Write the structure tokens for this entry.
Amino acid sequence: MRKLFLLILLAVCLQTHPISAQNQEFRNAIHAKLNFFDFGVLNDDDFRLSEGFEVGYFRNVGPYLNVGIPFKLGLAKLPGVDENKVSTSLDLVFHLGNMRNDAKISPYAFGGAGYFLEDFSNGHLQFPFGAGANFRISKFAFINVQGEYRKATEDLRDNIQIGAGFVYLLHKSDPKPVLPPDKDNDGTADALDKCPDSPGPASALGCPDSDGDGLGDAEDDCPRDPGPLDTKGCPDYDKDGFPDKDDECPTEAGRWNGCPDTDFDGVPDKNDQCPTEAGTAANNGCPDVSDSDGDGVPDKDDKCPTLAGTNDGCPDSDGDGVADNLDKCPKVPGAPQNNGCPVEKDSDGDGVADNIDKCPNTPGTNFGCPEVKQEVKERLAFATKAVQFETGRATLKNHSFAILDEIVEIMRQYPDYTLSISGHTDDIGDERDNLRLSESRAKTCYDYFMFRGIKANRLRFAGFGENRPIAGNDTKDGREQNRRVEFELILD
């Protein structure tokens, strides 16, 4: 029964068919473990359980291949020998596998050759092979279990071994990142700081921003009053795009100098003598006297001057907003984008039929998808300058990871959009080398987003080398602008 138990235990270890070892990022490893071995089961003798310990060093020499030198010392119960013998061995073994950084369990297989000594004198060759597994307990540390069969060139010295212990990957401490120059110590590097001598928040590109609205005082028309970017930093109470200081109706949203125009006749309500009837400016907002069909639309503007109607003067029998003369379904209410006919199924109710809606389950106005917010577009534009690489290489500088992480969060906010990544260079150097460098830099960003969990089908990248400059290459500043990676959210 004891022989059968050991054979079953060894077989279980050998059944770990995926193979693994330390990865190529951390090439060196050391280990220590306790071994239990027997020379009796395989030599038609009684069960002879022996104990010992093992230490070793392993080196990754290529994909899926590691070379190790384990040293073993134990007290062996050998067949044909009455007293216990001190046993030692030194092996050269080859591990096959690939231990991924995210693997919790990493099985492996191995084989090799070694020299075995009894009482430090009588020696012979042995050939070990077997399998085992590493169980991760931290980034660099593992619990190890292993089973092996050792074929000896000496009679009655074949044996099996079961071991358990600890594996540690040797590594260097992470270097302290070197921060780029920042003269005013405001957290925005001088290379990106529009005001390198005056501290300011990153949202204003390092410039002073007294009202905290994200627009530097030098560009802010209202530096003491916070306001949106589209009104140059000035307050816009009714959010109609006209800053309060220029809005004739600051508490009412409107298109005409900030004033509402209920009948859309181009005359604001405050000046319109007929605010609910479309008219002309010459007639103070009231309908022109020349209105043959009496629909309130002057004949000169009426597309159907002999038929009363409210849609550019034309009738709209089904009231769907599409005039009968343009409505392919004039008796049935429909949608303008479907020529007045009922739309097909619209799951999200945004007025765009599912068959043409690029986001059928999310309402939106951009081909049925949510519009990308202005502040998101601005952050993507900022990333073009903020993402930087080592000179002449596709290696990201440390400070670039923060803005790349922001883009990861943006991608999660817009799950229906695809991110286009395009690399560009200046014209210094060989054109083909520049093209390869631009593509490698775009691919580096692509790989980082994949690492952060963004699916490949939501990413695309390309390199354009020096072919798409945004500034002249005859100045240092122009070349710096041309060396960039651009990010754009698109709908496929």
Q: What stands out?
A: The first strand starts at residue 28 and ends at 38. The CA atoms of residues 1 and 47 lie 10 Å apart. Residues 1-21 have pLDDT under 50 and may be disordered. The two ends are 66 Å apart (CA to CA).
